[in-house]
Amino acid sequence: LNARRGNDAKNKIWNYLQGSVYQALKLPVIGDLKSLLEGTGRTLTKDADENIKTAQEAAIDFVSSRAIPAIVTDIAKMTDEFERETNNDAMNRLKSKLPVIREELPMQYNYGTGQPRLTQNPISQLFAGARIKDEVSSPVIREIDRLNKSNTADKINISKVTKLGKLSTLTEEQKNEVEVKFAQRYSQNVDGLLQTNYYNSLDDSDKVKEINKIKDNIRDDLKVEYGLEEPPKPKKRKRRKRRRSRR
Fold first, then answer.
1. Collapsing DSSP states into helix, strand and coil, what is residue 107?
2. How far is CA 102 from the centre of its chain?
3. Does the chain have fewer CB atoms within 10 Å around its N or its C terminus?
4. In contact, 60 and 83? CB cutoff 8 Å
5. The pLDDT value given to residue 143
C-alpha cells in the first residue's frame, strides 16, 4: 500500500521500505536486527566506507527478507518473463523481489545460448517456488554438461565473468554490457568450434582446454575493449635469411 504513493520507482521503493521497517519494528525479530547492527558496528575497521556500505546492504537484506513474503517474490517472477541481473547489490536484490519494479533491472543472459534467461513456468513458480527449474538446452550446454561429467582433470567453469578480477571493477552499467557481450560471443564461438573436424578429433581433456581457451580469449578482449588492459603487441615475424646463390 505504501508503494502506491510513489510517483516513480525510487519513491515507490522508499515508501515500501518505510512501511516495511514500520511493520518490522512490531516483529519479535527486531531484537535480532539490533544485534546484527551492533555486531556490524563492532567490526568497523579503517576502511569505513566499505564497512558502512556492508552494514547498509546487510540491513536492507535483513529487513527485506522478513518484510517481503515469499509469495510476493514468486508473483514478481510469475509476472516477469526474464531472470534479472542484480550484480550482487542489495538494492537490486530488493527490486528483484517486487512485482513490476523488478522489470527495471537488466536481463540475465545464458552463456550457453547467448539469449536472455527465461523465468520458469508461472504455475511451477507459484506452487513450487525455486525448487523446480525449466531446462533450457542447446548444443553448447549439452556438450559442456557432458564434459563436466566426464573423468577429465580440468572442468569448464562458466561462472559470471564480472564477478572477480579486473572486470569486477567496472560500473554496474558496464558490467551488464560485458555480460551480454560475453554470453553472445561465447555461445557463438563455442558452437562454431563444436562443428569443426579439429574439435571432433580431440579427446575430452583437450576439448575442455579448447573451450576454456575461448572463455579466456573473450575475457581478455573485453578487458582491452573497456580500457582495463593494453592491447597485446603484435608479434614480429622473423625474417628468413636468403641464401646467396652460388655462381
1. strand
2. 16
3. C
4. no
5. 92
Residue 18 to residue 100: CA distance in whole angstroms:
19
Q: Is the pTM of this model over 0.70?
A: no
Q: In sequence order, what are the beta bridge partners of 107? A: 84
C-alpha cell at 147: 564434459
CB burial of residue 211 (10 Å; 0-12, 13-18, 19+): buried
- Distance, CA of 214 to CA of 187 (rounded, Å): 10
Q: What angle do CA 175, 179, 180 make, to 5 degrees?
A: 120
Interatomic CA distance for residues 175 and 237, integer angstroms: 37
Grid coordinates given for 110: 545464458
Long-range contacts of 226-235 (CB under 8 A, 24+ apart): 226/167, 226/170, 226/174, 226/178, 228/166, 228/167, 228/169, 228/170, 229/166
Segment 35-47 mean pLDDT = 54
Mean pLDDT of 233-245: 66
**β partners of residue 118:** 82
How many alpha carbons fall within 13 Å on the CB side of residue 154? 15
| Each residue's pLDDT tens digit, 71-91 | 777 777 777 888 888 877 778
